[in-house]
Specification:
Layout: H1 4-14, H2 18-26, H3 35-44, H4 62-71, H5 76-89, H6 94-100, H7 105-113, H8 121-130, H9 135-144, H10 153-164, H11 169-178
């Protein structure tokens, strides 16, 4: 069972208020800052960077190409491969996974066959909980689908559960309902 007192403390320490991030986001770039110029300065080591001082666009710098490759959005096949890897690694059958995730066989089948173009973050979290993944494994599975846990309250709850679990989806849903979120995994 999830200790709601510890979870509440964890949320207080890690929750990023959505309204405050919008205000902070407006101040991330000053009028005197150009992200491409800042990037070029970082990879070239030059303090003065502009069209006359360097002669190359930061976008054509070899360092940018490697970063661009790392930031490329993963394909859905990557997610299916990672999901199948964890299912095999945890020595679970497909029925064990979709039952523990609170999914119907049809929903699970659509996910693993690729018929569901991109599963929702909550579905991926439900699968990660069913597989009893730790935090690193869960973030790996999420990132393979182009998802991440950010500092918003529901994600902080998921983060806590992966770091302190494993917990069943029913236990996580109790915590979600306690904090006024909808249950995940098809269990209402």
């Amino acid at each position: 069972m999830i200790d709601i007192t510890k979870l509440t403390k964890y949320i207080d320490e890690n929750f990023v208020d959505e309204e405050s991030t919008e205000e902070k986001g407006a101040n991330l770039f000053s009028l005197n800052s150009n992200p491409l110029v800042d990037f070029a300065r970082a990879i070239t080591g030059k303090k003065s960077f502009g069209p006359k001082s360097c002669g190359i666009s930061p976008l054509s710098h070899p360092g940018f190409k490697s970063i661009e490759k790392k930031l490329k959005t993963p394909s859905y096949e990557d997610f299916i491969s990672r999901l199948m890897y964890y299912i095999n690694e945890k020595n679970m059958t497909h029925p064990q996974v979709y039952i523990a995730a609170g999914m119907t066989p049809d929903c699970f089948s659509k996910i693993i066959s690729g018929k569901t173009k991109t599963p929702k973050k909550e579905s991926i979290v439900a699968l990660a909980l069913a597989l009893k993944l730790n935090y690193d494994e869960a973030t790996d599975l999420l990132s393979s689908a182009g998802q991440t846990l950010c500092g918003f309250k529901q994600d902080v709850i998921f983060e806590f559960c992966f770091k302190t679990g494993p917990y069943s989806i029913d236990e996580v849903n109790e915590a979600l309902v306690h904090f006024h979120f909808k249950p995940i995994g098809g269990r209402q």
